[in-house]
Design a protein that fits this description.
The chain has 190 residues and is mainly beta. It is 6% helix and 36% strand. The chain has 1 helix and 11 strands, in the order βββββαββββββ. The chain starts with 20 loop residues before the first strand and ends in a 10-residue tail after the last strand.
């Protein structure tokens, strides 16, 4: 049996995420539906300071060339211009972050809140995000207010400044569906 555990750098060994099983469908030559692949998601992020993540599928400008839009080793930003990005993230507890490395990562992505944000994860992307807690719990923070999310809760993040704070002492697994927005809508009445 193949060992599918992810090898993490020393600073990220505290969170050892389970591989995400990716099952992809398609059609055969006769137009019949078939399973094209079934196995661990090949794309894992290894960015210093960021939480472990697995990009499951991508459409739009960020997808890789070839038959697999999210192969092992292909780098991804926070979203895919003109498309979608499906990512599973394992957030460690807040106290396990190297905040300077996370700030550098967010700066490299061009998404970090440059003001005096009240939490180190504040960032903003031009995307509509469906954020779903699979396991554990995490606080979703806005500029004004916060709410505790638990397994099964879904947040609709509409291109707003936001942060994630894991105060539980245990990892929190979330899935994100990020949809590119050409003209973000941030008002409450939309």
């Amino acid at each position: 049996m193949q060992d599918t555990r992810l090898e993490l750098p020393p600073e990220r060994k505290a969170v050892r995420p389970r591989p995400v099983r990716r099952i992809v469908t398609g059609e055969n030559a006769a137009g019949r539906s078939v399973f094209v692949s079934d196995g661990p998601t090949p794309n894992h992020t290894t960015d210093p300071g960021s939480p472990p993540a697995q990009v499951v599928w991508v459409t739009g400008a960020a997808k890789a060339e070839g038959p697999d839009p999210a192969p092992a080793g292909h780098p991804f930003g926070f979203h895919s211009p003109g498309g979608s990005l499906l990512r599973v993230v394992d957030f460690p507890p807040d106290e396990q972050y190297d905040q300077s490395k996370l700030a550098r990562f967010l700066d490299e992505q061009g998404v970090r809140d440059g003001s005096d944000a009240r939490h180190f994860w504040f960032h903003k992307t031009p995307s509509l995000d469906y954020a779903i807690v699979l396991e554990g719990e995490i606080y979703a923070l806005m500029d004004e207010g916060e709410t505790l999310m638990r397994a099964g809760d879904i947040l609709i993040q509409r291109a707003t400044n936001h942060s994630w704070s894991n105060r539980s002492g245990k990892p929190c697994r979330m899935v994100f569906v990020l949809l590119d927005l050409e003209q973000p809508s941030r008002t409450c009445g939309d």
